[in-house]
Design goal:
alpha/beta, G-D-S-L family lipolytic protein, hydrolase activity, acting on ester bonds, two-stranded antiparallel ribbon, SGNH_hydro_sf, Rossmann fold, GDSL, 5-stranded parallel β-sheet, globular, 15 helices, 447 residues
């Protein structure tokens, strides 16, 4: 049985602390393997952070190894799939951009998170880009087949200065390509795959959502992408990958932002439990409300990143003088707009997501590509499900699906998504590519 780790070398595997089982992943079911209508000799993955294997608020070697494209490529190899080149960080810089780990659980049951800052691939010899510090260049970028770029959107994929903005994209370009203002679309279309996966578009709404519905004037990609622009760029990208019908692929759409724990974990009820105060009221800023604040209501979502600020003692100036008031627990010191996604913003995001998803689905149908409705999938599992005796849900940490940033998946979550993709690929292209045993992949690491 081929090993999912074979592509990065035995020396690295044997020395890696994250080799999680000590055995090779096996087929989930015993089947006769067939590629059906597919030519899998060159698989290329196109997408954002989810495609790159981003997890725990960072991109690092373990996440790259357990990315869903690497899992797919491993399974494709049993049906004639060729080599798959990922832009791995080196073992010496295995922690990549840095990430967060679970350090423990507090007495009130809240997770304690700590940053990982050793063995980074962050460059100190060059000025940071607007999107963050530069990262060590991948030496063999011309052969890259996993084009997952954290932070990229459909809108920015056509931006010719993006190599001077996003460090994850810049590390995959030569200096000459950066100077020539090579776009993401140009790079991925030039790969000429025989099969591709396309999961791009999330950040065309998610960037705005994770900022609490606040767009920054200096960042042209911080608002939701207009529908007409999205359609023109997305169809250009998909058309370039299809190559007039020469290549086949699978297309995924945009999940509902309210289906991920970044938006659903921190609630008034959970804060009441953690503080032991069942009368506590959380207030959010609302310029339309009396005094500019109102109690949080159904349909409002507190961001996961806001949790650390709740109850912080702030100096607030009142007519009677300056006093200490806990942040979010009093109308005089409500949560700010960038700490909450209110129900009006949620409705706007849901509408735009629906509009963009309609374009994605129609594009897939027009090109006769396999389609995975991720939006429906994540909404269908909101209440949880069981697989092989293990329970899964979108719950933060305990749900086994989402990593510590509340947006990106755990290795097991990525394996589950890979299996769902294989199921749809098999159905559409009359193939019998084997799925993988997801229990051999870890969920959140508990200290």
């Amino acid at each position: 049985m081929k090993n999912i780790f074979h592509k990065i070398g035995a020396a690295l595997i044997l020395s890696s602390a994250f080799f999680f089982t000590g055995c090779e992943p096996e087929f989930e079911n015993d089947i006769t393997v067939s590629r059906g209508e597919l030519n899998l000799s060159k698989y290329v993955a196109v997408g954002n952070s989810l495609t790159a294997g981003f997890q725990d608020n960072g991109l690092y070697l373990e996440g790259q190894v357990y990315s869903y494209p690497n899992i797919l490529a491993n399974q494709f190899s049993f049906a004639g799939g060729g080599a798959f080149v990922q832009p791995y960080f080196s073992e010496a810089q295995s922690n990549g951009s840095g990430y967060i780990r679970l350090a423990g659980i507090s007495a009130t049951g809240s997770p304690t998170l700590a940053p990982v800052t050793t063995n980074l691939a962050v460059r100190t010899d060059a000025q940071p880009l607007p999107g963050g510090p530069r990262l060590t260049k991948f030496a063999d970028a011309a052969k890259v087949q996993n084009w997952g770029v954290p932070g990229i959107s459909v809108l920015s994929s056509a931006y010719n200065e993006y190599g001077n903005v996003n460090p994850y994209f810049e590390r995959l370009l030569t200096d000459a390509e950066v100077t020539a203002k090579t776009t993401y679309i140009q790079k991925v279309v030039a790969t000429q795959p025989t099969f591709f996966s396309l999961w791009l578009g999330n950040n065309d709404v998610l960037t705005y959502a994770t900022s609490g519905g606040v767009a920054v004037a200096s960042n042209p990609f911080s608002n939701m992408t207009p529908v007409a622009q999205f359609q023109a760029i997305y169809q250009q990208l998909a058309g370039g990958l299809v190559q007039g019908g020469k290549a086949k692929g699978i297309v995924m759409n945009i999940p509902d932002v309210t289906s991920v724990p970044f938006f659903t974990t921190v609630t008034q009820a959970s804060v009441r439990r953690s503080t032991g105060n069942d009368q506590l009221v959380i207030y959010i800023r609302d310029e339309a409300a009396p005094n500019g604040a109102r109690p949080i209501a159904d349909g409002d979502y507190i961001l996961l990143t806001t949790q650390a600020n709740l109850g912080r003692q702030d100096d607030v100036t009142l007519p009677s003088g300056t006093v200490k008031i806990p942040h979010g627990f009093h109308p005089a010191n409500p949560l700010n707009d960038n700490e909450v996604l209110d129900k009006v913003e949620v409705a706007e995001i849901k509408t735009r997501t629906s509009e963009l998803n309609a374009i994605i689905e129609q594009t897939a149908k027009s090109a006769n590509l396999a389609f995975f409705d991720v939006h429906a999938y994540f909404n269908n599992i909101k209440s949880g499900f069981s697989m092989s005796g293990i329970n899964y849900s979108p719950a933060f940490i305990t749900g086994n699906l989402f990593s510590l940033d509340g947006v990106h998946l755990t290795p097991r979550g990525y394996a589950i998504i890979a299996n769902e993709m294989i199921t749809r690929i098999n159905a559409h292209y009359k193939a019998t590519i084997p799925t993988i045993d997801v229990t051999q992949f870890r969920a959140v690491l508990i200290p």
